[in-house]
Automatic annotation (TrEMBL):
InterPro entries: SRAP (IPR003738), SRAP-like (IPR036590). Belongs to the SOS response-associated peptidase family. The keyword Membrane does not apply. This is Abasic site processing protein. The keyword NADP does not apply.
DNA sequence: CCAGACGTTGTT
DNA sequence: GTCTGG
DNA sequence: CCAGACGTTGTT
DNA sequence: GTCTGG
C-alpha cells in the first residue's frame, strides 16, 4: 500500500519534470515524511492544461456528511476501482498525478515493523496515480485525494504485498487527459512498475512518527 | 421498495 | 478495540 | 502509514 | 450520488 512518502524537490524541478507551465504554487515545503490528512501537491488537467495544486491526502467523497471518512480513504485498489461507488466517478472524471521522490513501506518480521524507503533508480521525481474530489458542507470546501495501489512487483514483494501505482512517464499525459474515459483504457495505466526501475533500503524507525520530518530519514540504516 | 453503506490494510 | 491526529 | 488518545463535570 | 442487502 502507500501510507507515507517524500517530496523534497522544489516547485521548479516539479514543473520541469511534469511539463507544467502555469502554477499557483511558488514553492513547496520539502517533506521527508508526508502522512495522510496532510496537504500534498497534485497535477490536474483543468480541460486545457495541466496545473499544480494542493489536495488533502485522504479522499472525502462529495456525499460524505463529515470529513472523518477521509482518514480511511487514503488508497484505492486498482483492481476494484471501477466497482467502488466512492472511486468510480473520480476514476473516470477526476484523475491526478501526485509527485513524489520516494515512498515508505513497512516490512513486518516476527511482529516487528521495519520501514523501507523506495525510490526510482533514474530520475528522482515520479508521479503516483491519484483520484481527487471536491467536498463542501457550505462552510468549508475541501479538495482531497487518494493514491491508487496495486499488487507488489517482484522486488517490492519481499517488503510488502501492495504498492502504489507509479504512472510511466510516457503515459502521464494520457492518465491526466480528461477526454479519455474508457475504464479499460484507463486501467492499462495502473500496472505495477518494473522492479528494475526501483531501489529500496531499510531506514530508521524515526519515520514511524509523522512528527519526525528531516533529511536524515532518507539515510540507509 | 427503503435502509444503510460507501475503504484498505493486516492479522487471525 | 477503535478513532483521531500527524 | 504509525502514534497516541480514548471523558464529563464543574469551577476558575 | 450510487450500490448492495433485506
Amino acid at each position: 500500500m502507500c501510507g507515507r512518502f517524500t517530496l523534497f524537490d522544489q516547485i521548479k524541478a516539479i514543473q520541469k519534470r511534469f511539463g507544467i507551465n502555469v502554477s499557483k504554487l511558488d514553492e513547496a515545503t520539502p517533506s521527508f515524511n508526508i502522512a495522510p490528512s496532510q496537504s500534498v501537491i497534485a497535477i490536474i488537467n483543468d480541460g486545457e492544461r495541466n496545473r499544480l495544486g494542493q489536495l488533502r491526502w485522504g479522499l472525502i467523497p462529495f456525499w460524505a456528511k463529515d470529513t472523518k471518512i477521509g482518514y480511511k480513504m487514503i488508497n484505492a485498489r486498482a483492481e476494484t476501482i471501477t466497482e467502488k461507488s466512492s472511486f468510480k466517478h473520480a476514476f473516470i472524471r477526476r484523475r491526478c498525478l501526485i509527485p513524489a521522490n520516494g515512498f515508505y513501506e513497512w516490512k513486518t518480521v516476527n511482529g516487528q515493523k521495519q520501514p523501507y524507503l523506495i525510490q526510482l533508480k533514474g530520475e528522482g521525481l515520479f508521479g503516483f496515480a491519484g483520484l481527487w474530489e471536491k467536498w463542501t458542507d457550505g462552510e468549508e470546501t475541501i479538495f482531497s485525494c487518494a493514491i491508487i495501489t496495486t499488487e507488489a512487483n517482484e522486488m517490492m514483494s519481499d517488503i510488502h504485498h501492495r504498492m502504489p501505482v507509479i504512472v510511466k512517464k510516457e503515459e502521464e499525459a494520457s492518465w491526466l487527459d480528461p477526454n479519455i474515459q474508457d475504464p479499460n483504457t484507463l486501467k492499462q495505466f495502473l500496472l505495477p512498475i518494473d522492479s528494475d526501475e526501483m531501489k529500496a533500503y531499510a531506514v530508521s524507525a524515526d519515520v514511524n512518527s509523522a512528527k519526525n520530518n528531516h533529511e536524515g530519514l532518507l539515510n540507509s540504516l
